[in-house]
Amino acid sequence: MGHYKMLDGNYAAVEALKMAGVKVISAYPITPQSSISEKLAELVDEGELNAKYIRVESEHTAMSCAVGAQLTGVRAATATSSVGLALMHEVLNVAAGLRVPLVMPVVNRSLASPWSLWCDHQDTMAERDSGWIQLYCENVQDVFDSVIMAYRIAEHPDVLTPAMVCLDGFFLSHSMQKVLVPEQEEIDRFVGEYKAVNLRLDPKDPILINNLTSPDEITEMKYQQAAGFRNAKRVMGEVFQEFAELFGRKKSVVEGYRTDDADAVIVTLGSMSGTAKYVVNHMREKGYKVGAAKVVSFRPFPYEELRRVLENAAKVAVLDRTTGFGAQGAPLWLEVKSALDGCKLVKSYIGGLAGRDVSMWSIENALMDIMEERSAKPDTKWIDLQGDPMNLRQVLMNV
Amino acid sequence: MFDIVKEASGLVSHGVSACAGCGLELIIRNVLGVLGEDTTIVIPPGCSALFCGYGPNAGMRVSGLQGNLENTAAYAAGIKAGYAMQGNHHTTVLGFAGDGATVDIGIQSLSGVMERRDKVMYICYDNEAYMNTGIQGSSSSPVGAWTTTTPGGKPTRRKDLLRIAMAHDIPYCASASLANIPDLRKKVQKAKDTDGPSLLHIHCPCPTGWRYHPSKTIEVAKSAVQSGAWLLYEYCDGNITVNTKFKELKPIEVYFSLQGRFKGVNDEGMAEIQQQVKSQYEALLALAGLE
Amino acid sequence: MQRQQEKPTSKLRRFRLYGPCSHVFDASHTGSWRVERPDVAFDKCVKCGICATCCPANVITVDKGSAECVRIMWDYCKGCGICANECPQKAIAMIPERSVK
Asked: Which CATH number fits domain A3-22+80-247: 3.40.50.970, 3.20.20.300, 3.90.550.10, 3.40.50.2000?
């Protein structure tokens, strides 16, 4: 049945990696992920986790080691944030193309420049086409559950696609919450032993992996990856249901909150989704028919499910914690807009960048704004912009 | 498991589209000849990736992974750890990369392996430029050498890979050359038997990039050794052994004149390089406690 | 006896794998590149084996018991000429590929 533990998001991720029986760990410290690297090293050092800890010299190497290790037939683990994820970019694509079903917690943090230590989704959004599944977490329990479920999804023979479990830096990574941790036997039954069912390095059964491939075949290999994502949707449904039956916690690829009779709905990702629900309740008390929708799986994106959740809403506000420069709207908005096929008013809101709090005010402001919006094609609105944004620095210089 | 379409007398196919007279081809056959089937090889993109094959066709029959340009050592460390966690401590995990993938873009991940003392064997076949992309200069290109990115001759001296390895105090590293194939094979065996990281730096003449006739590969390799342009030595548990010692080095001009890439070196430059080569050799002897 | 019969005759089975890998050990017909080919004067050959050791394509076999003591796999010999250059007896000459001896 499990027991309750007080864990922050990083330790919840570590707990899940440990219980999944990772055998090789290659991690590099970066704020706010560092405590994941530290805790895993400690568990290995104390003999609580039977694994080899490779103290790598960069995130690029962290991902390369993990890919190499998992190709031999063991679960490998790493975790990162921000520019660390960006440094992994090249190898993320290799992991995906080789169909190595790694599971990696990513502690969301803004990308430089400017330097920031704090949360937004620029890092993972920059990797949304790297061929990884992306699950976003609302709270610390979600982090634990998502990592566990990600193994089942990623490793399914019809999926074979690596998965990022995205948790908001500091808001989740360093927030202590009560987490129900199942017993090891329960996790063992649910996750199972790792078996490499695809490309594998084995001197007794040798093949050469990842060699130069001609244009005659690459389109087809990319189609195989696309099929993996299509299958991931089905498998996610099955895994979520099995998890709910075993552990009593329900999850879905997109979760609607009071959306059935809502005129306006706000769509969010990650930890701000909790605030959104709170604001919805608050505004309902004042008589506004509003709802919230939390996207859990950003890749694959749940188009049909989102359409169902937003069926009755006339207006949809999409709050992105990232920018989407040069596009008509930010990344989550683009997906929602294309899911809804132009039949609703969908407006892009940008806020909560680099750790700026997505407050009750920001969300209420977005919902009030969209209810008053009359334009069919509204511009993107920066919801928490302060003062005179073009006039931040005035510096003395030689002429 | 490989489908054998055309048999070969070793682990490497006879028909691999390396250039005629390719030094690398001779090196990889000898290396795999010593290491045998119980090997997992990691090869970055580059000339040696030819041996990973094209599409379904393979040029070697050992297990292996083609990595990226900068992470050969990193993949190898991960693979070694994965094997070890499954009780396989016997398979040789070999990183096999050119000079660009080693001393330039790959030096960080290699340094990581050496510092952590991961039990990875690493070979840098050094053809002294980025040959597969079209002879661009690397930090291992020798001073004076023409490459497509040093059209006026390389103005700076090369990076010294073995001294970098020795600075990490790894248990075994050595230079080798096609000038002495039995010595090369002996060193491959020693590197394989090393408990910890081992590194071989193998001089790899390239007719295409060095501008000499393909028949001269061994001759050029020998001339490099005799002139002191390529020094043969080993570093084993802290001790340096100089494998080839000379009363007097042959003039560097002899080695240079065999190749087209040094045509731009004038008399003054030649004298300067000659002096550098001589002092490098003397420095090595001093390091080995021989002088 | 019963158990032996149940054993499959071969443990090899074909699996479908996704992603890039090479598994067909093959050889390109690199002999077609040849512009010149090595021509061995067998009477001069002392069967030292240096040509075989130095051949990058590993296509030379020295057979001490045979009159035609140096055999070359013509399908793969690229005609680089290293064997001729390294032969201590100068027993190998490079001749134009299409010429007749």
From this structure: 3.40.50.970
